[in-house]
Amino acid sequence: MKAYEVNFDGLVGPTHNYGGLSYGNVASQSNSQVASNPKEAAKQGLAKMKALMDMGFKQGVLAPQERPDVIALRSLGFSGTDAQVIERAAKEAAPLLAACSSASSMWTANACTVSPSADTADGRVHFTAANLNCKFHRSIEHPTTSRVLGAMFASEQHFAHHAALPAVSQFGDEGAANHTRFCKGYGEAGVEFFVFGRSAFDSRFPAPQRYPARQTLEACQAVARLHGLGEEGVVYAQQNPAVIDQGVFHNDVIAVGNGEVLFHHEDAFLNTEHVLAELHTKLSQRGGHFRALCVPRAAVSVEDAVGSYLFNSQLLSRADGSMLLIVPEECRNNERVWAYLSQLTADDGPIREVKVFDLKQSMQNGGGPACLRLRVALKDHELAAVNPGVIMTQTLHDRLNQWVDKHYRDRLSESDLGDPQLLIECRTALDELTQILKLGSVYPFQLN
Ligand code: SUG
Questions:
Q1: Which of 205, 206, 298, 417 has the fewest CB atoms lying closer than 10 Å?
Q2: Mean pLDDT of the 123-139 span
Q3: Cα–Cα distances in angstroms (integers) from residue 303 to residues 237, 243, 287, 298, 308, in the given order
Q4: Whose CA is nearest to atom 14 of ligand 1?
Q5: Element (H or E) spanning 52, and its range?
Q6: Any bridge partners for residue 254, and if so which?
Q7: 44 lines ligand 1 (CB under 6 A)
C-alpha cells in the first residue's frame, strides 16, 4: 500500500494585512502598519503550490476565512448592520477591527494537529483543531477551520475530527507548528514529537521571561490522548525558553523534521541529548533510524535563524530517498545562512538540494514556507477519500489565479479595514471559492 505526505497550503485571504498583532513574533511586530499586497501574497503562495506539484509532490489547498469577522465584533458589543459594525469598530476600536480582519488562517501549520492512521488506536487519521488562544486574532479561526477540514476530509470511515481544546491559556495549542512526525515510511507507525513552551500545571518547567510560550505540555498530552497515540509512539520535549524570548514563537521557527531526519538548531530544546536519545530509541522500535542534523550556533545564531527563517523550511523526501529543503528568499539574503546551506548540500548528508521561494508578503508577518502548509500523511485509499476539489492540479492552479485577479486588491493599509466594501468583496470571493473547491457551505455568511 502506498502512502504520501500531502501538503495543504493556506490560500492567502483577501484581507491580508500587517496588523502588528503577534507580540513575540518579531516580523509581525516590526512590519506593523506597513501596507500589504493581498493579491501578490496569494500569488506567491500559489506559485509555491504549483512548483511543488510540478516537482511531483502531492499538493492540496486550504481555503481562507471570512474577514472581517463580524460575528466576533458583534460579540464584543458592536451592533447594527454589518456595515455599521465595521464602521463603529474602525472609529472606536481600530486594533479590534485589525484583529478581526487578519488573514492569519493562511498559516495552516497552525490549523490543527494531524496524526496519520498508522499511529492511532482506531486506524483513522485524526485532526484536532488548534484553539490558538494565545492571540485573539487567531483564537477566532478554529470554528471555520473545523468546518473547512470537515468538508475536505469528510469520510467518517477514514477521518476523525476533534474540536479545539478548552479555550484557556492552560491548554494553549498551536497545532502542527509544534508537532513533527518521524517515520520510516509515511504509511508505517511513526513517532510523534510534541514540543511545548511551558507547563500550565507543573511549575518545575521553566517558562520564558519576555515573550509568551503559546503551547503547553498539557495541550500536547490532551491531543495525544484524543488521537489514541500509544506511549511508545510519542516524545514530548520542552522548547528552550531562552529562544522563545528571542522570537521563536513556534518550534517550526527553530526545527523541522521529516522521515527519519530532524534538522534543528543547537539551542532549540531543553535537555537536547535526552530528547534526541528518546527519539532514536522510539524510532528504532518502529524499525527506523533516527538522524539529527544539528546546526551549531557558531554557524547560525538564533537571531539569524529568526531573521532568515532557515528552519521554517519544508523538508521533503524525493522519490530517490534524498531530501529537498524549500527555504524563503530571506535565507539567500543572509550570508551566514546561505554559506551554511551551500555547505550542507555539498556534504554527503540527507539534504541534497535547496530551493528558494519568494514569500515576502507572508514572511513580513512571520510566516515562512513551513507555516503556510499543513502536512497530512495519507495512504492511497485515504487520499482517494479526500475531497478532490482541494487537490492541486494545473487547472485548479490557473482557476485560482484568475479568481485572485478578479477579487483581490493590490494594496491594503489599516485605514482600508474600515471600508465595509471589503467585507462584501471577501464574501463574494469566498462564495465563488467554495464552488471552485467544492466545499459546500462553510462560512458564517453561507450558514445563516
Ligand atoms: O501566529 N502571524 C502568525 C504567524 C504564524 C506562523 N506560523 C508558524 N510558525 N507555523 C502568528 O504569529 C501576524 C498577523 C499580523 O500581525 O497582522 C500573525 O498572526
A1: 298
A2: 98
A3: 22, 9, 37, 12, 8
A4: 21
A5: helix 38-54
A6: none
A7: no
Beta bridge partners of 351: 323
Q: How many Cα atoms occupy the beta-carbon half-sphere of 11 within 13 Å?
A: 29
- Is it the case that residue 140 has pLDDT exceeding 80? yes
Is 218 designated active site?
no
Predicted confidence (pLDDT) per residue in 332-389, tens digit: 999 999 999 999 999 889 999 999 999 999 999 999 999 999 999 999 999 999 999 9
Helix, strand, coil % over all residues of the chain, rounded to 5: 40, 20, 40
Q: What is the DSSP string of 133-168?
A: TTSHHHHTSHHHHHHHHHHHS--TTTEEEEPPPPSS
Annotated binding-site ranges: 19-28, 110, 137-138, 214, 252, 365
The model's pTM: 0.98
250, 264, 265, 280: which is the annotated catalytic residue?
A: 250
Mean of all residue pLDDT scores within the chain: 98
Residue 384 burial by Cβ neighbours in a 10 Å radius (0-12, 13-18, 19+):
exposed
Superfamily of domain 3-67+102-446: Succinylarginine dihydrolase (3.75.10.20)
